[in-house]
Amino acid sequence: RFLHSAPMQRIPWFAVLVILLTACSSQTLPQPRTEEEVHLFGPVAMKLDTFSKVKDWSNSGKPAGVEALVEFDDRFGDRTKAAGTILFELYDYRPYWPDPRGGRMANPWTASLSSYELQKAHWDPASGAYVFRLACDGLLWNHNYVLTAMFESTPGNRFFSQIVLRGQTENRVEPTTDPSKSGLGHRAPQP
């Protein structure tokens, strides 16, 4: 008699179970910002981060393209996210010119930040910036380039940023210290 319960008594326990499982879910869906939140925390500035550089992500020893880091700031100067489209262009560098952009190195790249999936794919929480890999053949490690980015937000605001990518010797990680030069790593005399 106690093992069997009427169907009407099982329904509330089932409903409680569903509510508990739903409440304990760790996956939260993004909520759109209110108009006031957009005004306070929406992007008011964009810049290409100084960590943008020519990079080899294919491990071939040759530049595969440019890794561009794009930051957006809100009105408080804090990093924020943005929705819209970015147009990247890469130019040869012309030293001593008011506009250092020389000839264009490749066709422009277009990147979208208009969906939840694209936001997650490009957002780097450690740097607070979006990361884009712009493939381009024929780049040289020791050459300077000019990278530009033009962003058009979903509401229609536009931002522009430009940075000179300084030439590097090659794409390798340099040691942070050299014991032989710092006086910290004395070696024992050889017998």
Provide structural commentary.
This protein starts with 6 loop residues before the first helix and ends in a 9-residue tail after the last helix. The strands form two sheets. Strands 1, 2, 3, 4, 8 and 9 form a six-stranded antiparallel β-sheet that branches. Strands 5, 6, 7, 10 and 11 form a five-stranded antiparallel β-sheet that branches. By secondary structure, it is of the alpha+beta class. Helix content is 18%, strand content 32%. Strand 3 and strand 4 (79-80) form a beta hairpin.
Offer a concise description of the structure.
By secondary structure, the protein is an alpha+beta fold.
Order of helices and strands: HHEEEEEEEHEEEEH
Main sheet characteristics: 6 strands, antiparallel
Rough shape? globular
Rg of Cα set: 26 Å
- List segments where confidence is low: pLDDT < 50 over at least 5 consecutive residues: 182-187
Determine the mean pLDDT: 82
Tally of alpha and pi helices: 4
Instruction: Please provide the count of β strands.
Output: 11
- What oligomeric state do these chains adopt? single chain
The percentage of residues in β strands lies in 25-35%
List the helices and strands and how they pair.
Blueprint: H1 7-23, H2 35-41, E1 45-48, E2 53-55, E3 65-73, E4 79-80, E5 84-93, E6 101-104, E7 109-112, H3 116-122, E8 123-124, E9 129-135, E10 145-153, E11 158-165, H4 179-182
Antiparallel strand pairs: 1-3, 2-3, 3-4, 3-9, 5-6, 5-7, 5-10, 8-9, 10-11
